[in-house]
């Protein structure tokens, strides 16, 4: 089983150059904490900040983008887009792919499938977001929805599975403070893990995302088979993010 836990920050459309100091502060905290814990800490920043990070100031923390272009070419006539190669050149090791906020803006399963391939071909690990709407949850369609998102993302990408981390984010939980019950999450995570192991013969890390905070981490840390967390709002506050990690390892 994975002993190395993921704590992934998603700053979304937030952050000014001066706010990068928050990351250096968290790096300092982790450096002192690092002897006792084993974690992957990744900050997924807006494109505007990726080139401004001082990589000499971070060694524990890795940097990721929040998306990449759905294009196989590195440079070209795609106004407003940023390719996997461009992101990689800025020192990123990860990229979020398929966040519900982007799916909502028209990103398709096909785009997501291609982006996983483009990310992997440039040595970027993909943080693949999957999750259901509240209606689907109410109608007991969550697992079928997530299963179809995973199948579609993995199609023809089997060789890239070692480069993928899945974040299960119920859409109705993002930014709302609503979190599924632990018994539900325990069985849901087990089902996802079993599915991937059985159908794709791989152990892919699966994280939880949706309203994670320093207030609820003490109970969320007990979700069976959960390899870590994708954290939006609470990752913008330095002390909140530090407290999430501290409380996880208490
Ligand atoms: C997210 O957007 O990926 C997320 C998990 O957001 P929040 O933690 O704010 O719910």
What does the model show?
This protein is an alpha/beta fold. It has a single domain (5-248), classed as Alpha-Beta Barrel (TIM Barrel), CATH 3.20.20. The chain contains 10 helices and 8 strands. The chain has helices at residues 20-33, 47-50, 84-89, 100-103, 109-121, 134-138, 142-154, 182-200, 217-220, 238-248; strands at residues 5-10, 39-45, 61-65, 94-97, 125-130, 164-168, 206-209, 228-231. Strands 1-2-3-4-5-6-7-8 form an 8-stranded parallel beta barrel, surrounded by 4 helices. Helix 8 links the parallel strand 6 (164-168) and strand 7. It starts with a strand and ends with a helix. Bound molecules: phosphoenolpyruvate.
Compact overview of the structure:
With 250 residues, this protein is α/β, with parallel strands linked by helices.
């Amino acid at each position: 089983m994975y002993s190395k836990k993921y704590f992934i920050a998603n700053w979304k459309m937030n952050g000014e150059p001066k706010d990068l100091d928050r990351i250096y502060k968290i790096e300092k905290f982790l450096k002192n904490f690092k002897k006792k814990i084993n974690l992957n800490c990744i900050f997924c920043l807006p494109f505007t900040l990726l080139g401004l990070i001082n990589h000499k100031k971070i060694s524990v923390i890795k940097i990721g983008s929040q998306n990449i272009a759905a294009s196989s070419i590195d440079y070209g006539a795609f106004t407003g887009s940023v390719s996997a190669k461009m992101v990689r050149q800025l020192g990123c090791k990860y990229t979020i792919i398929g966040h519900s906020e982007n799916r909502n803006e028209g990103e398709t399963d096909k785009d997501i499938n291609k982006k996983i391939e483009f990310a992997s071909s440039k040595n970027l690990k993909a943080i693949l977001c999957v999750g259901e709407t509240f209606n689907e949850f109410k109608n007991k369609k969550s697992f079928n929805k997530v299963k179809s998102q995973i199948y579609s993302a993995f199609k023809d990408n089997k060789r890239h599975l070692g480069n993928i981390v899945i974040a299960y984010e119920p859409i109705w939980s993002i930014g709302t403070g609503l979190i599924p019950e632990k018994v539900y999450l325990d069985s849901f995570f087990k089902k996802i893990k079993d599915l991937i192991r059985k159908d794709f013969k791989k152990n892919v890390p699966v994280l939880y995302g949706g309203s994670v905070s320093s207030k609820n981490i003490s109970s969320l840390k007990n979700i069976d088979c959960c390899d870590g967390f994708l954290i939006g709002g609470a990752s913008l506050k330095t002390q909140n993010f530090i407290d999430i990690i501290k409380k996880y390892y208490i």
